[in-house]
Amino acid sequence: MTLAFRKGVNYGTAIVDLHLHKVVDMLPDREAATLASWLKDHPEIKIVTRDRFSRYALAVSKSLPDATQVADRWHLLKNMGEAVKKLLERKRQHIIALQSQQAIRELEIEQENVSDQKQEVKLSPRHQLLQQVKKLYGEGKSIRMISRTLGISRNTVKKYISLHEPPQKKGFKTTNLISFSEYLQARIEENPAVETLQLYAEIKAMGYNGKRTILYNYLSKYGQQRNRTRLAKLPAVSWTTAKVKILLCKKEETMEQKDRELIRDICEKSPDIGRVRQLAVRFREIMENKQGNMLSDWIAEVEQSNLGEIKGFARGLLSDHQAVVNALSLPWSNGQVVGQINKLKTIKRQMYGRAGFELLRKRVILHSAYYHQN
């Protein structure tokens, strides 16, 4: 099991006896050669549960070719959840576009009637970045090349390629600004010259819980043209990808009524999300019912869909196929290892900055042995 000495920088490996429920050793890194060397000295090991780190799989296969490897079920669910979240981010933009299509058309008609001397609305830096990414990608540039050219991460490039507009800023998700959209529209129509600061004071008194800058960002693109341009309504999408990701994997009978209605509404608006729900629930059933023999059929079903993100997850399972099948069939898991890591963190914090790896290793092993004897 991977453990972080310094998260994102330095990692080690904890080895736990699943029968005795104790840490038996710690390794200073998570290199395949280090673990393989340790395993060669313990040929009696028959079953190994591990996370999906490829170097661990390589070390076990090399040193204990006859041992049964079991992938960590928590990481399987986590990886599937990440794939679902990516798809939801892409589809959420599509749903917003559908719901606001009529409002956008009306806004475009009004803008066409404005004088030719009207200043063009300046795109935000995030919109400009999105356009640059799409332009370079359309020219055949690789994700790595786009990342270097624009100075952004490859994950951002991958995300922006499939979006119609930049991801919604956190402020709009975490505030109740949408509740005052109609009021703001009415006030601007009543007094086109009303100051944004005045509008902020009014909705603040009515219960607005966001910052002033969020309201400024929402109103800024209309600037001095507010008396000639109708304010666009915020899309009526109140859910977040993080929340829906969890709900899509749940059975309806385990949800609250409002969550059931939300999922049904989303699936009606997007057949692809409805298909993702079916596949996610089926994967959970395979895991819960220990039906590892059904994994190949599930992967084949995913391959027949047009869900790129879920296909990527399914193909990743093939690279570690037998260990995943074992995880979905056998009772062994990495669950208790997480508890051991929590104990290890407590010990590490007690000696923070005062000792190195060897002392930490001794304390963890002795601590585990003491509590096992008592």
In brief, what are we looking at here?
With 374 residues, the protein is mainly α. The protein has helices at 32-40, 54-63, 73-99, 101-112, 125-138, 143-150, 154-161, 170-174, 181-190, 196-205, 212-220, 241-248, 257-269, 271-288, 295-303, 308-318, 321-327, 335-350, 357-373; strands at residues 2-6, 10-17, 22-27, 47-50, 68-71.
Overall mean pLDDT: 80
What global shape is seen? globular
How would you sum up the major sheet?
3 strands, antiparallel
The DSSP helix count reads 19
Structural class: mainly alpha
Determine the N-to-C terminus distance. 25 Å
Strand content: 5-15%
> Spans with pLDDT under 50 lasting ≥5 residues?
115-121, 224-230
Estimate the helix proportion, in percent.
Answer: 55-70%
